[in-house]
Amino acid sequence: MPSLSVVVLFRRLVAAVCGAVLAMACVPALAAESDELQSFLQEIQAASDQVRSFSSTFVQERKLALFTEPVVFHGSLTVVRPNRLRWEFTSPVPSVLIFNGERGMRCNADAPPASFDLGSDPIMKSVAEQLWLWLGGDYSRLESLYRMEKSGPDSLKITPKEEGMAKFISTITITFDTTNRQPEKVEIAEPGGDATVITFQSYVLNSNTPEVLFTVCGTDE
Amino acid sequence: MLRWLLVLCAVAVGLFFSRDLRLSEDAFDLLPGEAVRGDLRMLQRMGLVDRLYITVSIAHKEGIPAPVSKKELQDSVAKLGHLLAESGYFSYVLARLPQGYEFSLFANLQPSLPLLFDAGDLPGLADKISPEGIKAGLQKSFALLNSPAGIALKQQVQFDPLGLMGQVLGKLNLMRSEFAVQLDDGFFMSRDGLSCLVVAESRTSLTDSAQAEAIEIFFREATRQALVPGVEASVIGSLPHTLANSRAVKEDLRVLLPVATVLMLLLFGVALRNIRFLIVVAVPYLAAPVAIGLTSLFYPKLSGLALGFGIVLLGITVDVATHLYLTITYAPGNRAEAMKEVAEPLFYAVLTTLAVFVVLLFSQVPCHRQMALLAIFGVLLATAFAYLIIPMIARPQREKTAGRARRDWLTMFAPKRPLPVLVVWLILLVSGMITWPRLHYNGDLRGLDVADERVKADELHFSNTWGGGGEQAFVLATGPSLDKVLDRNYLVYRFLQEHEVKKFQSFAPLLPGPEAQQHNRLGWQQFWQTNRVGFEEKFSSAAQAKGFTDHAFAPFFAWLNDEPRPLSPSQFLGGPLQPLFSSMLKVPRENNPDDHTYLAMTTVAIDDRLLPELVAFAGKHEGVKILASKKWRGEVETLLRHDVLVLSLVAALLIALLVVYEFRNVRAVIAVLAPVMSSLAAMSIFCFLTDGQLNMMHLIMGLMVIGVSVDYGIFVVCAKLAGQKNISERSVSLTAASSLIGFGVLAFAHHPALYSLGVTVLIGVGVAWPTALCVCPAIVTFGHKEGRR
Fold first, then answer.
1. Per-position DSSP letters for B616-630, written without gaps between them
2. C-alpha closest to that of B157 among B85, B106, B223
3. Does residue B542 carry a pLDDT above 80?
4. Average per-residue pLDDT in chain A?
5. Which of the residues B99, B144, B151 would you substitute to probe the A interface, choosing the one with the greatest number of A C-beta atoms within 10 Å?
6. Helix B209-226 vs helix B70-87: angle between axes, to the nearest 10 degrees?
7. What is the pLDDT, as a whole number, of residue B659?
């Protein structure tokens, strides 16, 4: 009968060998995952490169601990890459947010339009960065600031690396439309459990977009 | 030999005592009055005198900006700021605010915000907590939380659902200067986005040309390293002015000194053909080391300008040495007789010169006093040296024909008919008297600044880029403790608020003194004691109606319940706005025992209405001082005008008394004073015909002209009364010619100060000389037959 110490030694040896075998088995698995992500990113990028501008409607659902119930906002979005974006809520509280290069404008029913400069307004700068993150189309360049992984067949899960941003956002999951490969749904999870889901619909790609959309809030007048 | 030894020993002793002399290039030594100097020293302590304003811009070529992105421009600025800060040349560099300063500022201020609500803010607060205000505030918060910015602003909304903080944080705008800057990622950028502003404060005085050169060399290298192609930097402040002046002076001297040297050699070589005369000319300057040594006993730190001009003023005594030399050489009789003959005019010439400098000792300008003392020692010593040395080198040459030839040449100037000469002279005097009251004394030292095109272009670029440029006042709150200073600074802020002044820069609303904080705390607490109960009820029902949970705004109510945290300077001096605060608040430096005053600065754009009100306010409040160039230029001008008028009158009176005492003859007295009257009249006419202004250089060199002109009169009149022929005229002609060559050549300088200096001598001596030769004898002989006195 082998002594106890021999048994312990044997078990450790087996564990070490198994560990090494498993680790070796995982390397191709991780590599495959990375390849899949890269290929997915390339696919998204290729689709995005074909789209100079787009517009859509969206529904935003915010689940915050501050609210007794989820709050749903409806709105529309217009994007002209690389740097013009109009985010408009139509109900229940109409408001408009415009980014035009380094400058922008926000409007709501109760106050006159307020212009801002991204250099001097850190909040708006951060908002612009977030919106361009989801909608800019150039996902491959984000690897330095975010950890990215593929989540499901058509989704990209993004986790901020930077501590400052991680205080506000845990993860962002972007699901892409299977045909046009534009963002279909963006889910934002916040550290305290709050969450936001924005669903984009009725995409119109590469249409003629009037410049006035990025210079004036109320375009009906 | 013994005499030479004595003189050389004295020079050696002088050099020994001068070794500890420290030279000061402090421009404040040129300013009159303790009050003005004290005010400006405060500005220097605030760092405003030695501050560089650097505009880093995207270069333009034919009106088109170079292809440089905003990021490249900002990176260049960040790198330049880093290089400047690391160099050790600067005590303070502001190139950008720290990243994320907005968030850390909010976190820093939030617990203390109630202390920033003053009485003027409470009506606005009441509006915010009215039922309509609550409804509007919650609606705004609701929209904000659901906007794309909601994720980042969630906590802020919980702390401040009604936007109370915005009311006081708006006061942050008062931290901005008058410049049209906008913050972009912490950089101070122009509205067109093509320029960034960097501010740096030198550790050493930028009015010192050597230090300015060193900083400029470093700055050039730093910009070469930091700026990407297509980006350029320009500097305004005292640095470019110091450099432009120093270089203009060097360039002028580089051209004019050789010209003066050649002319001087021609004068001595052709007119005298005697190398000994070089020693005669050098005698006054042998006295310089001893005079400097003696002056250093009274002024261990001597103004560089006083030293320079003091030595120049010693040049006056060249006429003593010349007169002595020529008398011994050409006068009849032996050496002892010649020296006896010349003793009396020399004594009075020296006495009148000394009288001018004794009067100058009472000037309110430190530099003038130092210069006067140096000149007094110098004149006395140079006279003594002349008496020791000249008799040894002068050789009687009465029999030489050359002497006769020169005598004949000089007799051409002797007036054959005095009347026309006197008429012309009287016309000159009357014209001088008419123009004198119309002259304006310009005490602004900027008038002596060189008008450098590059400096002007940079200043224009700065004002086009950043605006500003209007008249400003600096309101300094001073005191022995930080608390005291902060309270006084807050009083200034309240005054400006009450007078509805819009354009000012102050940190007082963000950092009130303890008194104001206590006052604001009481106001805040009283406000909530009155309103709290009703408010909570109204707020809760409005929040519920908007869909918020009961505990959604718990942080807000906790903040209302908390005792406000006192604001302390360390919060700011160590916080994200530190660069801005440290430029406006100065604490005593630990390594300087004399520096125990705290200073807080408010910058105000002033007009003719506001300045007197500010001055009156400062008069009523201890420890508040108003510094405005408009105000102190006026004070400087008044003090200097007073100096010029009083000292000139006293000097004139003293000289007149001495001359009257010596000659006791109206005709002789007028004759003696004729050259000085002519030179003053001519200077007055010249200044009137040019820009109608007198400046400091006219004053200083005017003293030299007065000193030598009186001497000319004394020498000529004494000789005339003694029946001596031509020696005095020759002596006067030689010294006048050497003065005109030595100093008059500066009338062709480009630098305004050198030009003023040169033109004063050129006009003054240029007119005193012919007056001495023509008018003095004419006055003495007018109405007498030839041969009578």
1. HHHHHSTTEEEEEHH
2. B106
3. yes
4. 80
5. B151
6. 140
7. 87
pLDDT range class, residue A87, cuts 50, 70, 90: very high
Which pLDDT value is given to residue B594? 64
Nearest to A127 among B136, B148, B185 (CB): B148
pTM over 0.80: no
Take residue B507 and report the two structure tokens written for it: 């940190």
CA distance A103 to A120: 10
With an 8 Å Cβ cutoff, are B148 and A87 in contact?
yes
Give how far A142 is from chain B: nearest CA, Å: 19
- What's the whole-number mean pLDDT along residues B447-452? 75
CA distance B132 to B15: 85
Interchain proximity B148–A188, CB inside 8 Å: no
Name the residue in chain B with its Cα closest to that of A103: B184
Residue of chain B whose Cα is closest to the Cα of A95 = B143
Closest CA to B681 of B780, B745, B773, B766: B766
CB distance A119–B103 less than 8 Å?
no
- Given a cut of 60, whether residue B52 has pLDDT beyond it is yes
Structure confidence at residue B272 (pLDDT): 64
Cα(B518)–Cα(B512) distance, integer angstroms: 9
The lowest-confidence range among B40-49, B601-610, B750-759 is B40-49
C-beta of residue B388 within 8 angstroms of C-beta of residue B3: yes
State the helix-helix crossing angle for B366-393 and B2-18, rounded to 10 degrees.
Answer: 160
Label residue A73 by pLDDT band (50, 70, 90): very high
The 3 state secondary structure assigned to B702-764 is HHHHHHHHHHHHHHHHHHHHHCCCCHHHHHHHHHHHHHHHHCHHHHHCCCHHHHHHHHHHHHH
A103 touches chain B (CB under 8 A): no
B49 has a pLDDT exceeding 90: no
User: Measured between beta carbons, which residues in chain B are less than 8 angstroms from residue A93?
Assistant: 139, 142-143, 146
Residues of B with CB below 8 A from A102's CB? Answer: 70, 193
Per-residue pLDDT tens digits for B465-505: 887 667 788 899 998 888 899 999 999 999 998 888 888 88
- On whether the CB atoms of residues B125 and B117 are closer than 8 A, the answer is yes
Which DSSP symbol is given to B604? E
A151 against B80, higher pLDDT? B80
Closest in A65, A119, A131 to B148, CB measured: A131
Instruction: Please give the pLDDT value at position A19.
Output: 42
- B670 backbone dihedrals φ, ψ, rounded to 5°: -60, -40
Rounded Cα gap, residues A82 and A138, in angstroms: 10
Chain A positions in Cβ-Cβ contact with residue B140 (cut-off 8 Å) = 110
| Segment A168-209, tens digit of pLDDT | 899 999 999 888 888 899 999 999 899 999 999 988 988 888
pLDDT band per the 50, 70, 90 thresholds, residue B46 = confident
Identify residues of B whose CB sits under 8 angstroms from chain A CBs. 70, 100, 102-103, 136, 139-140, 142-143, 145-154, 157-158, 182-185, 187, 189, 193, 547-549, 552
Q: Do B149 and A164 touch (CB under 8 A)?
A: no
Alpha-carbon distance of B470 to B610, in angstroms, equals 13
The count of other CB atoms within 10 Å of the CB of residue A190 is 18
Residues 117-176 of A with CB under 8 A from B: 117, 119-120, 122-127, 130-131, 164, 168-169
| B549 chain-A contacts, CB cut-off 8 A | 65-68
The per-residue pLDDT for B179 is 65
Number of helical H runs and strand E runs in chain B: 30, 17
- pLDDT tens for A159-169 read 988 887 888 89
Residue among A68, A120, A125 minimizing CB distance to B549: A68
Q: Are B102 and A168 an interchain contact pair (Cβ–Cβ within 8 Å)?
A: no
